[in-house]
Amino acid sequence: EAEVPLSDEELGLLAENLNKVEELLCFSEDAPEGFIMLRENDEEAEEEVYEGFEPFLTKPLEGKTLRSYLTFDEAVDEYFSKIESQRQQFVEVQQRQQVTGKLERIKLDQTRRADALRSEADRTNRCAQLIEYNLDKVDAAINAVNEALASGFD
Q1: Taking the CB of residue 92, how many other CB atoms lie within 10 A of it?
Q2: How far apart are CA 52 and CA 35, in angstroms?
Q3: Over 70: is that where the pLDDT of 26 sits?
Q4: How far apart are the first and last CA of the chain?
Q5: Which of 3, 94, 102, 148 lies in disulfide reach of 153, CB 3.0 to 4.6 Å?
Q6: What pLDDT score was predicted for residue 10?
Q7: Sequence-distant (≥ 6) Cβ neighbours of residue 129 within 8 angstroms
Q8: What band does 28 get if pLDDT is binned at 50, 70 and 90?
């Protein structure tokens, strides 16, 4: 691998930034601030959704929606309590959707069954009406069958 030499200016910037990082990491008595990154709001979102947390403001965080806290510990506590709350809400919503889905399937099945029973009742009523309209012919057919059986016809 070829080494790329750094200019004096680049070496100076690198050293300066390394010193800044060292200062940030060696906080002496002060605890670092905390930051929670918020997901970009959807139109339908009712509340803020947390994406992550950081102890320092870095370049990648520029332009992101952030909520700052006095200490990193506060940010972490808030993040995990909110995430747990959101997880519970998500589980509750899923359970509600499952129950609603089952209820809808049961309603649909019951509707189909009721329709099938109505259809069968209509068919049975039509048969009864036809028998009533043709009562003479039905009685004659029944008598003919009874006579045939009485005379030993198998």
Answers
A1: 10
A2: 8
A3: no
A4: 106
A5: 148
A6: 86
A7: none
A8: low
